[in-house]
Amino acid sequence: MATPTSLPATFVAGNVLTAAQMNDLRGAFRILQVVSTTKTDTFTTTSTSFTDVTGLSLSITPSSATSKVLVFSTLAITGDAGQSVSFGLLVRDSTALFIGDAAGSRIQASFYGDSDPNNLLQQGITYLDSPATTSATTYKVQVRSGASPGVTYVNRTETDTNNNQYSRSASSITALEVSG
Q: What's the pLDDT tens digit per position in 60-69?
């Protein structure tokens, strides 16, 4: 549904909305659908190219090409002690989202993980996307190692010893279709 245009530009005491204006307002900026997935198991990769995190993707089909999709993602990520850091990427179909400008050989990423093998970072992002489609759209998280050899861990630390000094975590991705 489109942004209401029949509303006054400003409101002052005593303004009364017509039934049409109230209906316009009621239909504006509604959450039309919510799709979410949570990953509770672990994932590991040695790739220095961005790789899909198994179980951390979702598909949403916008009801209108003017709809926005509000994406929330949280990624529990770390690297091994033998490399720099690990990186994560938010992706729509095959398009990277929420990344900085290209600059030399720097890696464009949405998330990063520490190189401390005992420090699992919970990184979160919020991104408002305009997919401009009514086709099924996939949002997913990808990760890569910062250097080779190197390992990127999701939802666990490198050490991962079975005692109360180490943790397991969860990661998630959620998409909300917002009427445009």
A: 999 999 999 9
